[in-house]
Amino acid sequence: MTLLRIALLSLPLSLACGDKDGDDTSTGDGGADGGGTDGGGDGGTDGGTDGGTDGGTDGGTEEMGFTLTGTVVDLATRAPGGEGLCIHALDPTSVLGGDTELDIVASAVVGTGGSYTLEDVVMPSLLGMFVLVADCADEGTVWTTATGIPTSDYEDLGEGDTLNQTALLVSTTFKMGMEASMAATGSTHDLATEGAIIAFVQDAAGNPVGGATVTCEDCPLTWYMDADSSDGLFTTGPSLNTTTVQAAGSLVVIPAAPLDSYETAIADSSYTWDNQTFGSLPGLAVIGAFNANP
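Structure (tokenized):
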């Protein structure tokens, strides 16, 4: 396993920290209009490791990791895609601790039909991990997107094991559509600079739940997406949506989301959710899910 270090200064990214239960990448049926993507993924790296071998023990053999495989799916169109983009397995521990570089533990290029395989993933993080989809050389086709995977999904995996995981991507076209819809209400959000949480509110089986809210003590405005883009992605007529919309996959967007405890609730108490620690850093679309208790 080769550990690469990517500087935030050269690739601005945003991360979530999560006590997350369930599948972080489940999506609903709905959605807003947006674009697919093509083209490349994340570029350069700084340095390798000191000395000649990576990750092994003194005088021993190199530790072998599990295989992470799956399909890249466009958030807006719900269609597989991203051929030619770069995809990485990311350990968020160092950045969450204040470092300015990301730890990329495995990398590959997305293949036909959005398929990808990341080999030899050794993931020591106890804070969850991310699958990162990005342009390879700043082509501008995709907003760098990180799909979260909870620790419980991989902590017992090792050599010979395989984890299947859908990785979402947010195209630049769709990001611009969200910004335009926000701007129509007077907002001045620059998502590519601020970063954002993009999350699905779901029941225990992964189905979208309409009529729910997501808040935190220091949160900015939570934006609730609907399935009708003709009057803006986050408004019904002139009014901002105030709860999740099932037809749009119960999707919420929180720009510049602080690291905080997020509360999900619904007025009729038909579902309950545990509070979840989450957040973002500048530059990245962080994909997650708020899953209801069984």
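The two ends are 37 Å apart (CA to CA). Residues 1-59 have pLDDT under 50 and may be disordered.
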